[in-house]
Amino acid sequence: MTEKLQTYKVTIRTLSPVFIGGGKAAELSPYTDYIQQGNQIIIIDQRKFRDALVDNHLLIDEFVQEIRNRFDNNRSLFSLSAFITDRMKLSISDVEQCRLPVEGNVGKNQIRRFIASSGRPFIPGSTIKGAFRTAVLVEWLLKNPEGKKQLAKIRAIIEKKDKTEIIGLDPATKCFGAVDRDLFKYLRISDSAFFDNSALSVRKVKRVSIKSDKKRRSDIPMWSEALNSDIETKCVLSLLNPKLLTGFPFLDQQSYVELLSTINSQSFDSCDLELCELDSAPGDFDRLKHFYEELQEKIKNCRRHEAIVRLGGGKIWFDNSIGLAVEQNGFIKNYLTDVLNIKHSPFPSTRSAVLKDGLPALPLGWVKLSVDG
Predict the structure, then answer these.
(1) How many Cα atoms within 13 Å fall on the side-chain side of residue 203?
(2) Does this model's pTM top 0.85?
(3) Model confidence over 230-246: pLDDT tens digits?
(4) Which of 12, 81, 195, 252 holds its CA 20 to 30 A away from the CA of 48?
């Protein structure tokens, strides 16, 4: 069998806000990087800001000293806005890069930035490919004869409580092969096209507990740049037909339809799990539950060239692991206890959610993929 490459253009449309972080270094500080004016976050263009300071060494020293010294009980009194207008004698627009909408008062919190290249946000192909990989692994464990044997072996090891064998569990390698022969090398996904900053807004994200007897929300919000809902972009999906059969129809037959069906299956089961957990959650979560009810209907109605998947920040453990396969095989409690050393229920007991009016309103990360005709 000769290798042949089939390439497809894919449209990505966001169904909820999406956050994909650019790392710890990609955070905006209220002391150097952004200013809030009402319902807008003004991001400072660091090049313009430095150029305005470069000819005035006294101002540079003053800027550094202001940030270092003006603290009162660990709360900085320094105002970037006042420094620009009063000391640099500039308007904010002279040094701004862009403006993003925001609901609420960010205060002195840092803002997590969406991943970007040269200041242009995008969805990495590796993020999409990782979500695909998890879905394929889960389906292999549940439906493929070799995968079923592996899942049965995992269950038997856990029931024996053999700690040595438990540590060595590696179903992904059994499914895809070792790193140098990984079958997923035959699936390629490009980074998405770049977004304009108009596609972003700053969202108040918190980890919220779904346990009615616990504190509902964390104290510290994770303010984040996020893609808005109903934003579209494009990427390219390529399937390389291997020389030897792999046992995966989406590769052997170069069938994106098979791949999208696998993705939808995992996403549907993920929605099922969320709805089951949210049924016993406090009424604060009604809007979140309603979102998942509608999302599950959307997955049911996907056509053969469409799939719904979750990307980036906000995913729970079940979205990134073999958890759904273990749960459906009936030994999730033992798996959590003996492999992950987790004894509390439900697990996970918190969710990352976009807050509106102080209540969890939307999950992060859900997108719809459509292979262009």
Answers:
(1) 30
(2) yes
(3) 999 999 999 998 888 88
(4) 195
